[in-house]
Amino acid sequence: MPELPEVETIRSQLSKTLPFTVKTVEESDVIGSLVGKSVRHFNPKNMSLVKIERKGKLMDLHFVDNKGKVHHLLSHLGMSGGWRLSTKKVIEKHTHLQLGGTNPDGPLYMAYVDPRRFGVLRFCDDQMYEKEMKKLGVDIGSDEFNAEYVWQTLKKYPERQLKVFLLDQKYFAGSGNYIANEICARAGVRPTRRAGKVTRIECDKIIEGTKSLLEGSLKNNGVAFSGGYADTTGDVGEGLNNLVVFWQETCGICKKTPIKKILLAQRGTFYCPKCQK
């Protein structure tokens, strides 16, 4: 599943093409599985996409109509979703939404592609937008995500296992399975450790480890696993080279200890028995 670095890579690439004026909107027969039961409050045709923001793994595409009103298209990539950019119509299997139009450089097509269709598209009014955004906690790439925040949050739920807790988007927006594994490794904390047993000093290490991981993953345009993420050009990135425990045979920190794999909350969990206590 695309996590913060992958979503941010796509957001950044899309943003470089703005402003984008939409002239045509094409949808697949199964786009309903992405929209779900939510009401579609607008159609982006003849609107301009002027800004794209991100919180956690959720992208917020700002469309402006001819009266100057802002409309929000929220995009969650799910397991295998992604956006593609092209000066010609995107011809790719599993394309469910294709926006055609122009930007300052000429013709442009922006397409949402999702083979497994676990992604989400929400065409929001203000009320729906606020409701969706309130579901997310502090973004792990923001300045609000600091050691004191982690310390106070962990103390509220002392019995939760750290790695499982780090997956909770209500508190750690943008995290996912590989990020949670890597944060624990870089902080020197076993993923099974109870939140209440994590020290204040270890919270500092959690922040340092998170920053190191995100910087490396973003520098390499994201981390891709089989059948998952690709950026707007179809490139899968080289972020795998930045991982120290996740799907590794040997610890990338001590360089010698075999990695152990267990299941926590039905998710593959990796750790170094020497470096993590």
What features would you describe in this structure?
By secondary structure, the chain is of the alpha+beta class. The protein folds into two domains: 4-133, Alpha-Beta Barrel (N-terminal domain of MutM-like DNA repair proteins), CATH 3.20.190.10; 147-271, Helicase, Ruva Protein, domain 3 (Orthogonal Bundle), CATH 1.10.8. Helices cover 25% and strands 24% of the residues. It has helices at 4-15, 32-35, 126-133, 147-156, 162-166, 177-187, 200-219; strands spanning 20-27, 48-55, 58-64, 70-76, 82-86, 95-103, 106-113, 120-124, 260-264, 267-271. The strands form two sheets. Strands 5-7-6-1-2-3-4-8 form an eight-stranded antiparallel beta sheet. Strands 9-10 form a two-stranded antiparallel ribbon. Helix 1 (4-15) packs across helix 7, helix 4 crosses helix 7 and helix 6 packs across helix 7 (200-219). The longest helix has 20 residues, at 200-219. The mean pLDDT is 97.
So how many helices?
A: 7
Q: Please give the domain count.
A: 2
CATH homologous superfamily annotation of the largest domain = MutM-like, N-terminal
Low-pLDDT segments, ≥5 res: none
